[in-house]
Design brief:
2 helices; six-stranded antiparallel beta sheet; Thiol Ester Dehydrase, Chain A; 173 residues; single chain; mainly beta; 31% strand; 10% helix
Length: 173
């Protein structure tokens, strides 16, 4: 989400992360969650800069809690060309606070496959496109082999589906 120059994000570790999230693997804050927090910089006002950039200097960093498996991130402008990061757990309790993250341009910008330099325009951005309204036509479906409940009438095999159609049941589309 964005509100003015602020960027908001949520990140959660997959269940497969297991004990890594609780600090048993030596992570006070799992690297995936820290990286997710840093990724919000690419959606902030820093992304308006020309060319690619990387986080360079982190200052005023305080860890308040360890073992988080899900976080909420707020990136907001700090002094100069820096952004601050506030990372909380889903209840709002602080996990990490970063006073300022300063970025710098990538020294030799990486090349894309077509020889052009990679840049800020290469980042993904959220874009909402309206879905066209439908005419309300119902599509007839059928499943074979005990598949998906609620999708359509289920038939044990293809011969059973063929027999049902032969006896007058509507043919699936």
């Amino acid at each position: 989400w964005q509100r003015g120059d602020e960027v908001f994000a949520e990140a959660e570790l997959p269940a497969a992360a297991g004990s890594d999230a609780t600090g048993d693997a030596g992570y006070p804050l799992h690297p995936v969650l820290l990286d997710a927090a840093a990724q919000t910089l690419g959606l902030s006002s820093l992304a308006d800069r020309e060319g690619a950039f990387l986080p360079f200097s982190w200052s005023g960093t305080t860890l308040y809690a360890s073992g988080a498996t899900a976080v909420r991130v707020t990136a907001s402008p700090a002094d100069g060309a820096a952004m601050s990061l506030s990372v909380t757990d889903p209840t709002g309790a602080p996990v990490v606070q970063v006073g300022a993250v300063t970025v710098r341009p990538v020294g030799s910008a990486p090349q894309q496959g077509d020889g052009e330099e990679a840049g800020a325009d290469d980042l993904y951005r959220l874009s909402w496109r309206p879905v066209p309204e439908t005419d309300g036509t119902v599509v007839r479906c059928a499943t074979v082999g005990g598949g998906l409940p609620g999708l359509g009438k289920d038939h044990p095999d293809l011969p059973a589906l063929a027999a049902a159609v032969a006896t007058g049941e509507p043919e699936p589309e």
